[in-house]
Amino acid sequence: MNPLWTAADAALATGGTVTGDWHANGVSIDTRTLQPGDLFVALAAARDGHEFVAQALANGAAAALVTHRPDGVADDAPLLIVVDVLRALEALGAAARARTQARVVAVTGSVGKTSTKEMLRAALTPQGRTHAAEASYNNHWGVPLTLARMPADTEFAIIEIGMSNPGEIAPLAKLARPDVAMVTTVAAAHLEAFGALSGIAAEKASIMDGLEAGGIAVLNADLETSHILLDHAAAGQHKIATFGKGADWALGDVRITDSATVINASHNGTDYLFKLSVPGRHFAMNAVAVLAACDALGADPVQAAQDIGQWQPPMGRGTREIVVLDYGIAEETLDLIDDAFNANPTSMTAALEVLSASTPRDGVGRIVKGRRVAILGDMLELGPDEIGMHTALADDPHLAKAHIVHCAGPRMRALFDALPADLRGQWAPEADDLAGQVARLVDAGDVVLVKGSKGSKVSRVVDAIRKLGHRS
């Protein structure tokens, strides 16, 4: 097996100076997850990565990418010394991209980037050697890290690209040089940095600025801002494949059950009927986009439609699990929907639809009748109209099918006050306050949705629910 990076190759890519003749089989930025044989990259984040170089080498790192020899590191330690560590990581990523013949798809969107990346992994892996980040590495260091980890013999690469401020996507797209660029959707996420949906759409559209010659843009045709995406593609003279109702890849009927999503789609006279192993209309739209991307990459969309059923959402993004409340009583369980990683009005509506389609179980809990329970945390970074957006959730028809709604955070107070009296459960200033009382907020037989932005810390409610079964 050829090494991922030799000292000579890494020095050539970065213009750095090497000490020792080493080779690395991986690239790491964190000593907690570093594997023996990794090249440790001493990035400056909350703390300067140079503080951890000695530990990384002691843990078996093949070498360290640094700007200088840190204190406590031996004179003969294997190093790659550069002027700027982040710029050097970007150079490694660019070199890895240049040396591979892989077909590359880059994915962005206000909602569903990571889930779509994982759908693509499930669809493409059976058709060729596929590379994608294990986590949501989609920012200024995550994209070059993902590229730098890409083996030379990769056949399909999936690069997730995110943003929180204007001007972030285009440089990362140009680094990734995708053959296919996908925009899943444009929604009110990070709205305070852009002012309007049109600004978000323009930023998302800039992923096409990195397309290789002859590349294909896979675009959502059902958005109020779709014209911005399509105009950007036309200006760049890119080929276009659209997905959505009446699009090139047409989404037909979608049937949502407790445990699955059954999807009808069509393209160029071919009908597709396939299933996801989790419920969610938003997942259906992204799944059709995945088929379009697979086709654009030269993979077989028919096989992709079969294999995408193996996909499961990443943790915190709609994961379904059964929580056992009493290990002595088989029926003492509840159904937990963990969607606590991110939230905006679009993704909140999608999650509430999943909850509304779920069926609680009666006769197994202290309340006797099973319930649909929503525990909602603040949606963040929505801009000056954030309170209005929270209030508007009270009119969501899917929310009306819940039996009780608990809210955490100052913004969610607006929703709580707008709810009908029979839906109001508890409101708390912070998610921790609800986490401390989950034993009386949920019951066996319930289907429980927990959703909010990561910064709302509503994931602590998820953790508290999972621990209910461990009570003495």
Verbal overview:
The chain starts with a strand and ends in a 6-residue tail after the last helix. Helix content is 30%, strand content 22%. Helix 3 packs across helix 5, helix 4 (113-124) packs across helix 9 (281-297) and helix 9 runs antiparallel to helix 10. It has 472 residues and is of the alpha/beta class. The strands form 4 sheets. Strands 9-10-8-11-12-13-14-15-16 form a 9-stranded mixed beta sheet, sandwiched between helices. It has 3 domains: 5-84, Udp-n-acetylmuramoylalanyl-d-glutamate--2,6- Diaminopimelate Ligase, Chain: A, domain 1; 100-310, UDP-N-acetylmuramoyl-L-alanine:D-glutamate ligase; 319-470, Mur ligase, C-terminal domain (Protein-Tyrosine Phosphatase, Chain A, Alpha-Beta Complex). The protein is built from 16 helices and 22 strands.
Record keyword descriptors for this entry.
Udp-n-acetylmuramoylalanyl-d-glutamate--2,6- Diaminopimelate Ligase, Chain: A, domain 1; nine-stranded mixed β-sheet; single chain; UDP-N-acetylmuramoyl-tripeptide-D-alanyl-D-alanine ligase activity; cell division; Mur_ligase_cen; ATP binding; Protein-Tyrosine Phosphatase, Chain A; 472 residues; UDP-N-acetylmuramoyl-L-alanine:D-glutamate ligase; 16 helices; alpha/beta; EC 6.3.2.10
